[in-house]
Write a structure and sequence with these properties.
347 residues; alpha/beta; 7-stranded parallel β-sheet; TIM Barrel; two-stranded antiparallel ribbon
Length: 347
């Protein structure tokens, strides 16, 4: 099968008339026993640096559940390590041991050649495509603002007050930081496409903490610069914004094909507001802890609400959680795949 004719790629461009596509964020993860078996012999960082293991864990959920797209296994902070950030992943979340505390600290970060400094990521993509040549592969990166949050805070946070203060206390240094990150991320995603990725997604995990004006200035503007750079790659560009609802008007002008939707909003309302873009989402991951029948009902409710299914990619509205029942995931995939067939039978 030609990957460009797949249901996932077709839906990205709003022209999927066949089976609805589904993949889920963090689909290679701790809910899978086969993934946990890999982690028993490798730390998270070792896994992220092993092309062979990257390909193995990316293959696992696609093979088990029949997802319509694979996503590269890595971490959004991986790109920061060669830039000079001391990144570690102890239990409880990522940490950066040398966070940015002042404008002078921004000068510590280096511009890097991503092909020279992150060869294991690109080789991982090539190996994935050897194993699964017919499954669309999504490359990804964190947004400049989300990466800046970790660089300044030094760890995860519920509100990232320190990065928000830094933007207003040191606007020139903040602009320098975000522009550097945007340039590196843009080249990183270009390299992923050159290695074999058929789509790219930018995760704006923390844009939702910003005011409307700051989101436009410090998130959307930089993401748009990256996507414009990737336009010549001729692959679908996806943008996931956690807590997307306050910024729909700002997203209209983002030069991308797909907007990923979190679970707090009505996906059809987003689709109507962003007419011309495809939408991806948005089942609450907690729903999967219910019975399979409950999962079927909730997923069907979302699909029933959509005006135009040709431009829908089903996903969760956030990453799948550890200990999620496998039978619920299977029920979700089957529900999405059978939805149009069932609809035809009842009309």
């Amino acid at each position: 099968m030609d990957v460009t004719a797949s249901s996932f790629i077709s839906a990205c461009y709003g022209r999927n008339e066949g089976r609805l596509p589904i993949w889920i964020m963090r689909q290679a993860g701790r809910y899978l026993p086969e993934y946990r078996a890999v982690r028993e012999r490798a730390t998270f960082q070792e896994l992220c640096r092993s092309p062979q293991l990257i390909a193995e864990v990316v293959r696992q959920p696609v093979e088990r559940f029949g997802f319509d797209a694979a996503i590269l296994f890595s971490d959004i902070l991986t790109v920061l390590e060669p830039m000079g950030a001391d990144v570690s992943f102890p239990s409880g979340g990522p940490q950066i041991k040398n966070p940015i505390k002042s404008p002078d600290d921004v000068n510590r970060l280096k511009d890097v050649d991503v092909e020279e400094t992150l060869p294991f990521v690109l080789e991982g993509i090539r190996r994935i495509k050897q194993v699964m040549p017919q499954v669309p592969l999504i490359g990804f990166a964190g947004s400049p603002f989300t990466l800046a949050c970790y660089l300044i805070e030094g760890k995860g946070s519920k509100n990232f007050d320190a990065p928000k203060r830094f933007l207003h206390e040191h606007p020139r240094a903040a602009e320098q930081l975000l522009e550097l990150l945007a340039d590196v991320i843009g080249r990183y995603l270009q390299a992923q496409v050159a290695a074999g990725a058929e789509a790219v997604q930018i995760f704006e995990s923390w844009g939702g903490i910003l005011s409307r004006d700051d989101f436009t200035d410090w998130s959307a503007r930089l993401v748009n610069r990256i996507f414009t750079r990737l336009k010549s790659a001729r692959v679908p560009r996806l943008f996931f914004v956690n807590n997307v609802s306050p910024y729909l008007d700002a997203l209209k002008d983002i030069d991308c094909e797909v907007i990923g939707v979190d679970y707090r909003v009505d996906m059809n309302q987003v689709a109507r507001a962003l007419s011309g873009k495809s939408v991806q989402g948005n089942l609450d991951p907690a729903v999967l802890f219910g019975t399979p029948e409950h999962v079927v009902e909730r997923a069907t409710r979302i699909l029933d609400s959509m005006d135009n299914l040709d431009s829908v990619i089903f996903n969760l509205g956030h990453g799948i959680q550890p200990k999620t029942p496998l039978e619920s995931v299977q029920a979700l995939v089957e529900t999405v795949h059978n939805y149009r067939r069932q609809s035809c039978r009842t009309t």
